[in-house]
Amino acid sequence: MLLSKKLTFRFVEDNDPHKAIKVGIWLYIFLLIFEGALRKWLLPSLATPLLIIRDPLAIWLIFKAVSQRSFNPGKYWTIFILLGIISFFSALIFGHASMVVALYGARILFIHLPVIFIIGNYFNRTDTLKVGYVLLILLIPMVLLSILQFYSPQTHIVNKGVGGDLEGAGFGGALGFYRPPGTFSFINGLTCFYGITSSFLFYFLFTKTPISKWLLYGALLATILSIPFSISRTVLFQNVLCLVFTIPMILSDPRLVNKLIPAGFLILVLGFASSSQFVQTGLKVFTARFESASESEGGLKGTLIDRVFGTMYSAVASSIDQSLFGKGIGAETNVGIRVLELPEDYRMSDFEWSRHIDELGVVLGLILIGSRVTLSYKLITIAIKKLRYEKDYLPWMLLSFAFLQILKSQLSQPSQVGFIVISTGLVIASMKRKKRNVSYS
After folding, report:
1. What is the pLDDT of residue 14?
2. Burial of 105 (0-12, 13-18, 19+ CB in 10 A)
3. What angle do CA 80, 131, 428 make, to 5 degrees?
4. Helices and strands (H, E) in the chain, number of each type
5. Does the residue 284 lie in any domain?
6. What's the pLDDT at 195?
7. How many whole angstroms separate alpha carbon 393 and alpha carbon 382?
8. Following DSSP, what letter does each residue of 44-98 receive, concatenated?
9. Residue 87, pLDDT score
10. How many CB atoms lie within 10 A of CB 150?
């Protein structure tokens, strides 16, 4: 039994007045998780068009939502759509002048980011918890798949790349092992999946839930194993961040400490199991990757402070020296570089705030950065109030993953965009009450 008898699971209730939109949102979520599987294994010949498989669905969701009188998207919806439209024409007039590249880049702003507010309007707290439950179910086979990819050669079918590429989908790791992508096209999709799932897992661990204990502790075990076998420092940092976010919860209600006892016992058991060769290999590879990457970045300061926050500061500080109109939106995406036949080093920055200014120019770039900052600040202040005054932990724990996604994650990578959209939308949806919605405008 994955659920107790108290909960009967249905994705959408038959009598829900917004059933069509909710079904569309669920489809958006599943396409995000399994898009890479379609492009690698099931329909490799259609790998290129499948890159934008969620675009038609996002457009349909927008048209469906705006036709509803109950739809109240707020100011950020308008800001993102206007930025997308203006940046599209700016790229054609002042930038690279490629309609294909401009449309590919701008579509994120006026097609995908608006879906955040569709999720926030039409999903509610119950829908949000259902997503968390489904993610926990998918987590266990996802970790098993990633372990199989970890131990398999890159020529094995589980490691096929996009379009059936036999060179493999694994990305640089350590000691001859590669970072596995799971069902995704690239490792960052898997790390995002682990991150959002961990935020739900920690919430479920600390609250009363109808989810089976077998599923809950199985997901916890899978989460622990995901850290070494992903060979990803990001996965470790995301779980540490989840732990940090639990501290205010425990301070607000010390009785929650009791919830740590079963989890602590499971971690202790896993500690004994880690002496096995199977787990030791993963730990050795992860440790080697962590040490080599940290050394190249200047230790913990370079990894956490400079890489995460220093690049944000430097992007804004150096914006005065940048072009007023930029290169044109989409220019520094992989598609943009390929279509414009530019060298790989044309991409001036791997960091998102710098890319915003490089592509959109100083004015539009800073407006987009400012919108992301103010939205993330607005949501976390509401979550803090709900944590403090209502003992409502769900929005707070979801922000353990979503906050940095909203603030600084890449809008140029399809999987990353998808997780920004669903994580932010679910935070907004989780804040809603039956009789009164939270204003995030």
Report:
1. 80
2. buried
3. 35
4. 17, 2
5. yes
6. 96
7. 12
8. GGGTTGGGGTHHHHHHHHHHHHHT-TT----HHHHHHHHHHHHHHHHHHHHS---
9. 96
10. 22
CB atoms within 10 A of CB 160: 19
Write out the residue range of the structural domain in which residue 290 sits.
19-430
Write out the two tokens for 327.
Answer: 């290169």
- CA–CA dist 338, 342 (Å, integer): 7
Q: Please, are residues 8 and 102 in contact by the beta-carbon 8 Å criterion?
A: no
Ramachandran area for residue 330 (φ above 0: left; ψ -120 to 50: alpha; else beta): left
**Among 102, 137, 145, which residue's Cα sits nearest to residue 29?**
137
7 lies in some domain = no
Could you report the per-residue pLDDT of 53-65, keeping only the tens digit for each?
999 999 999 999 9
Q: Left (φ > 0), alpha (ψ -120 to 50) or beta: where does 231 sit? A: left
Which residue's structure tokens are 């890479």?
A: 36
- Identity at 186, one-letter amino acid code: F
Spatial distance between the Cα atoms of 144 and 158, rounded to a whole number of angstroms? 12
Query: Which two tokens mark 282?
Result: 């993963």
The per-residue pLDDT for 254 is 80
CB 339 within 8 A of CB 348: no
| Start-to-end Cα distance in the chain | 41
pLDDT < 50: residue spans in the chain? 1-6, 434-441
- Residue 9 resides in a domain: no
- 8 A C-beta contact, residue 226 and residue 192: no
| CB 54 within 8 Å of CB 112 | yes
Q: Are the C-beta atoms of residues 432 and 438 closer than 8 Å to each other?
A: yes
Number of domains in the chain: 1
Q: Return the structure tokens found at 90.
A: 């700016």
The pTM for the full model equals 0.91
Q: Residue 14: inside a domain, yes or no?
A: no
The first and second tokens of residue 423, run together, are: 């994580």
Cβ burial of 13 (10 Å; 0-12, 13-18, 19+) is exposed
The confidence score (pLDDT) of residue 204 equals 93
pLDDT in tens, 239-276: 999 989 998 988 888 877 777 766 666 666 666 666 67
